[in-house]
Amino acid sequence: MAMATEVTELMQTPLHDLHLELGARMVPFAGYTMPVQYQNGILAEHLHTRSKAGLFDVSHMGQLVLVGPDHETTAHALEALTPSSFVDLPRGRQRYSVLLNREGGVIDDLMVTRPETDAEDGRLYLVVNAARKEVDIAHFRKNLQDAVKLEVIEDRALIAVQGPEAVNAVAAHAPQAADLAFMSACSTQFDGIDCHVGRAGYTGEDGVELSVPAGAAEPIARALLADERIDAVGLGARDSLRLEAGLCLYGHDLDETTSPVEASIIFCMQKRRLEEGGFPGADRIQRELKNGPGRVRIGVRLNGGVPARNGAEIAQPDGPVIGTVTSGGFCPVVGAPVAMGYVPAGFAKTGTGLELIVRNRRLPATVSDMPFVSNRYYRKSNP
Fold this sequence. Notes:
- By secondary structure, the chain is an alpha+beta fold.
- Helix content is 22%, strand content 32%.
- It contains 10 helices and 19 strands.
- The strands form 4 sheets. The chain has a 6-stranded mixed β-sheet with strand order 10-11-12-9-3-13, sandwiched between helices.
- Residues 1-7 have low confidence and may be disordered.
- GO terms for molecular function: aminomethyltransferase activity; methyltransferase activity; transaminase activity.
- Belongs to the GcvT family.
- Its EC number is 2.1.2.10.
């Protein structure tokens, strides 16, 4: 009975009833009840996304807006909390970034979009992780400059459509989606419904994310799922897809002790910011860039055997433990278990032999380049 009470207290996304109709197995996740898989199962959902397109309900994630008097003011306010450059972010473009604490650890990773119109000058649209949403909101409210305010968007859903057929399928309802370059965004209409579309995602595939009015989420999702190219995909396949793509998951591969240098996401830090500093943890990050970090995130392929999950130990062959797995699982396209984790920098070279300790057994493994499966992001440039 206690479990039933716990479940009823979980929040629901605007697509909750549709998930149940589609036969989803629902699980608690970040305070929400979310679909972990549908009737076809995680493996089929994963492979369908890689070959055609998958629809993901990501409405549990936080949608926020920073609002200032002009772009430069708002951009500088966000730069004070991150190591990324936003002053030079063009209209209609997106940038991946991280919120940092004073020690240079990652509070959260997030996507930042500058709207494309003059009317929205001074606004930056953010998408943050569901499990860190309240932490991020409190951090912004405590640390933002007075001239910039935080708005929390409560009345919108977020739908991701990912895979090689994703953009063509979405463009049948929102033609402007086909014209977007990778990491660009626009406001448009989906069958006459106002929405925001960004060409990005969390699978390594081409695709888009649509921010839509909560009340329109179900008809939009139904319209997309009526396309034979698109299947509904749950959290299970979302995780295996991002693992194959070598992408970090907050709370596993990123946390408040881990720096962007250790995590091998230095692409989120632009040259100007690294030279100027002036962001939280700048001394540590500049030192790690100069001298190398003490530990680094690596990819690992297991030579058969069972998957190594979060928390499994990484050891030298027949030797001492040197690190920890932060993400792991079976990856269908790879056809074998893979993992990510942290080890001293001296053990991070591709091809280095290691052992992962799973259920008291030492399983042979090899340091691998990431992504494990080649990313297929759309590379057209803006005109």
